[in-house]
Amino acid sequence: MKRTIIILLVVVLLGIHISKGQERDCSNTKIYNLVFQEMQLYKKKAVEIKIGYEPSKFVIESIGIMDIFDPTEMEQFKSLPEDIDYLSCTKLKSQIELMLSDDLIRENGSYIVHFFSQIISLSDSKKCVLNKTAIGNKNYQGGKIIGHEIIYIFSLIDDKWVLIDKKSVGMS
């Protein structure tokens, strides 16, 4: 009996250790929450949200022309971050689930897909996220870009991330 309890305890502790080892650094997910609040996605809802798209060369060049970053920040922007699976962050995943609703699928199967880039670190106190939209359809694969692409810029002020600027990058 004691042996069974000890084995069970070891298995449980090992499971906890393995799951903690697979956790991502989820501290940056607060920035996504701020973008979701700015877009009012908690109220407006969404059918599909994807995180991790890479901005096109056109978007990167457009942002460079807009002159919203100093040269060092622009270099950081151009060196896109490594692909991080933010959806493995439980808190972010549950926040996204709060926004998802199939009620927004139209009769023809179409709906709007919201794409978000990885969080791009410009410095320790300045980060940005890009957002674009597309039309998806439950009846066929593919979609087309609609609306516009927006860059959200955040700064760390008094140990809190604050939206300091939001600019339209392009329209489609």
Structure commentary:
The protein is of the alpha+beta class. The protein is built from six helices and six strands. Strands 1, 2, 3, 4, 5 and 6 form a six-stranded mixed beta sheet that branches. β3 (120-123) and β4 form a beta hairpin. It is globular. The relative contact order is 0.18.
Question: In brief, what are we looking at here?
Answer:
The chain has 6 helices and 6 strands, in the order αααβαααβββββ.
Overall pLDDT metric: 85
Work out the strand percent. Answer: 25-35%
Beginning-to-end CA distance, first to last residue = 68 Å
Helix content: 25-40%
Query: Ranges with pLDDT <50 over ≥5 residues?
Result: 20-24
Tally the helices: what do you get? Answer: 6
Largest sheet: 6 strands, mixed
The count of β-strands is 6
Helix and strand string, N-terminal first? HHHEHHHEEEEE
Shape: globular
Provide key terms for this protein.
alpha+beta, 6 helices
Topology diagram in text:
Blueprint: H1 2-21, H2 29-39, H3 41-44, E1 48-53, H4 57-66, H5 71-78, H6 90-99, E2 110-117, E3 120-123, E4 126-137, E5 144-157, E6 160-171
